[in-house]
Design brief:
A five-stranded mixed beta sheet has the order 1-2-3-4-5. It has four helices and five strands; from the N terminus they run E-H-H-E-E-E-H-E-H. The protein is an alpha+beta fold. The longest helix is centred in the C-terminal third of the chain and has 17 residues, at 96-112. The chain is globular and about 55 Å long.
Length: 150
C-alpha cells in the first residue's frame, strides 16, 4: 500500500488544480494548440458542472503526483452507462501495484455510478502497457484520414 492518497475533486476544488489540469491535458490529450482554448473551456465547464470528474493523487505532503479526468457517458447502442477515461497523467512512474490500487478506486467509482464498463483511447504505448496490467481488453482501433479543404 502506498502512502499517496487518491481523491475525487469536488467541483469547488477544481479551480486550485486548474493549472495542473490544463498542463496534464495539454500534454496527454492530443489536441492541436490552436484548439486548446476551446478544449479548456469545454473541460472547465464539464468539471464545474460535474459532467466530468477529476481524480488526483497526492503525497502525504499534498504534492500532486498525478491526475485522471473521467466522464460518465451513455453507450447509445447498448443503452448502458460507461466511464470514459479522458486523461490519465502521472508526474512520477507508478509501480504495477500502485496502478492496480488506483485503477481499483476508479473502478469502484464507476460501479457506484452504475457503469457497465470503463473505456479509454490512447496512442501512447505506456498506456497500452498499463491496460495490460489492469486487465483491459482491446475493443477496437480508431483511424482517421484528414480531408484538406480549400
Amino acid at each position: 500500500m502506498t502512502t499517496n492518497m487518491f481523491y475525487k475533486l469536488l467541483a469547488v476544488q477544481i479551480v486550485p488544480f486548474w493549472d495542473a489540469i490544463k498542463y496534464a491535458v495539454a500534454t496527454v490529450d492530443e489536441v492541436d494548440k490552436k484548439n486548446l482554448p476551446n478544449y479548456f473551456n469545454e473541460l472547465l465547464q464539464a468539471l464545474l458542472s460535474d459532467k466530468a470528474q477529476c481524480f488526483v493523487i497526492l503525497t502525504e505532503d499534498r504534492i500532486l503526483q498525478g491526475l485522471t479526468i473521467t466522464r460518465i457517458v451513455v453507450n447509445k447502442v447498448e443503452d448502458v452507462k460507461e466511464m470514459y477515461i479522458q486523461t490519465a497523467y502521472s508526474m512520477v512512474t507508478m509501480s504495477d501495484a500502485e496502478l492496480m490500487e488506483y485503477f481499483t478506486i476508479i473502478k469502484q467509482f464507476a460501479e457506484k455510478e452504475g457503469c457497465k464498463r470503463i473505456t479509454y483511447n490512447s496512442r501512447n504505448p505506456r498506456i497500452w502497457q498499463i491496460a495490460k496490467v489492469v486487465n483491459c481488453a482491446e475493443q477496437y482501433r480508431h483511424f482517421s484520414f484528414e480531408l484538406k479543404g480549400d
